Amino acid sequence: MKTIGLISANYQGKGFGELTEERTLASVPYGGRYRLIDFALSNMTNSGITTIGIIAPYTSGSLIDHIGIGNPWSLGRKNGGLFLMPGSVYGVQAEGRRFLIRDILKNIKFFERDDADYVIISSSTDVYNMDYKPLIKQHSESDRAMTVVYKKVPRGEDYEGFFIDISEDGRVEKFNTSAEGWGNYFIDCCIVNREFMLEFLKWFGALEYMDFFDVVKDHLDVFDVGAFEFRGYFGRVRSTSDLLKVNQDMTDYVIRNEVFCNPERTIYTKTQDEAPVFYLPGSDVRNSTISAGCTIKGKVENSTIFRSVSIEEGAVVRNSVIMMHCHIGKDVVLDNVICDKYVTINDGVKIFGSEDKPVVIGKEMSI
Q1: How far apart are CA 194 and CA 238, in angstroms?
Q2: 129 in Cβ contact with 42 (< 8 Å)
Q3: pLDDT digits (tens, 9 = 90+) for 267-300
Q4: Sign of the dihedral defined by the CA atoms of residues 215, 206, 13, 247, in that order
């Protein structure tokens, strides 16, 4: 069955501060060399989806610069390919909503001009590596209008978003905002019949200010919605503490292998060629991700270091994320800190954050 993809990138989260002043959340750097949107794009292309639309915000410069015409994902093609589509000004929808009907309605021709059977809709800021082929197969065999993807998670009350109640025959009965114990957490991904999507936009076009799934949850007595369980690693990014955690998760051998080392599901990104890392005598690196082009003279522990970062003698970088082209001076101490690109930390400076509230240092700042 032919399937096309739609990725929503026209939303921001609260609490990201300087990290999202000049970029959308989807283009925030991650994991030493990637951007968050790389996972949504790679999941689709690895599943054989070659027509993908991205709803972009008005602050989309960094997103466009990163994606280009989609060549890293083999989307620079004559038939199908990558479509960057305009979204409305975000901020008018409720916090946590990612699929504004107005954005979809504004780009209805993306659905009208294609003859696909199904559309996979995904958010753009969560970290997971998923094969959509079993999802497409289950949905096509179910004869349902829509199938949503969920992940079983503990301590549901700590998760922002929706949880779903599922009947014995696999139908979604209810969307909740919390769950006790283990819950079925909706991971902002679904597959929907293209014809149903077009009908949906006709029925509810007047509610363009609402989120697509807010409308779906209020009409479960009318819509036949199924559920599909994703059992792999799922890294939510809803805050700076989440961003810090999902970067540190990649130092876990099992998680890193699942996300990045499957030869059939490579996570693609815009490549930047650099020289190998230069570790000088006296450097000490433990349980960290160090990218190409870096010069390491100090100590790095439980951290993610992006390209072309220099860390001087006596410096200690612990539980932190240091993005591209930063300079960490002599005898600096950073603990639970996120540095954006081109930051300079001068000699002797000591900055301490926490797991729940990491310190964020904006782009090109000198401290």
Answers
A1: 29
A2: yes
A3: 999 988 889 999 999 999 999 999 999 999 999 9
A4: positive
- How buried is residue 337: exposed, middle or buried, by Cβ count under 10 Å (0-12/13-18/19+)? buried
CA distance 302 to 233: 19
Give me the domains of the chain, ranges plus CATH numbers.
Answer: 3-260 (3.90.550.10), 278-361 (2.160.10.10)
Tokens of 296: 């390491």
- Over the stretch 141-167, which tens digit does the pLDDT of each residue have? 998 999 999 999 986 556 778 999 999
The pLDDT tens digits of the residues spanning 72-131 come to 999 998 889 999 998 876 544 455 568 989 999 999 999 999 999 999 999 999 999 999
Sheet holding 344-345, edge to edge: 278-279, 295-296, 310-311, 327-328, 344-345
Task: Name the nearest CA neighbour of 304 among 30, 26, 66.
Answer: 30
Of 31, 15, 20, residue with least CA distance to 359: 15
Contact (CB, 8 A) for 243 and 320: no
Question: Cα dihedral sign for 141, 153, 216, 60?
Answer: negative
Contact yes or no for 274/291 (Cβ under 8 A) = yes
What is the distance between the alpha carbons of residues 130 and 230, in angstroms, rounded to a whole number? Answer: 8
The span from the CA of 81 to the CA of 357, in Å, is 40
Cα–Cα distance, 54 to 37 (Å, whole number): 10
CA–CA gap between residue 58 and residue 64 (Å, rounded): 11
Q: Which residue has the tokens 């000004």?
A: 89
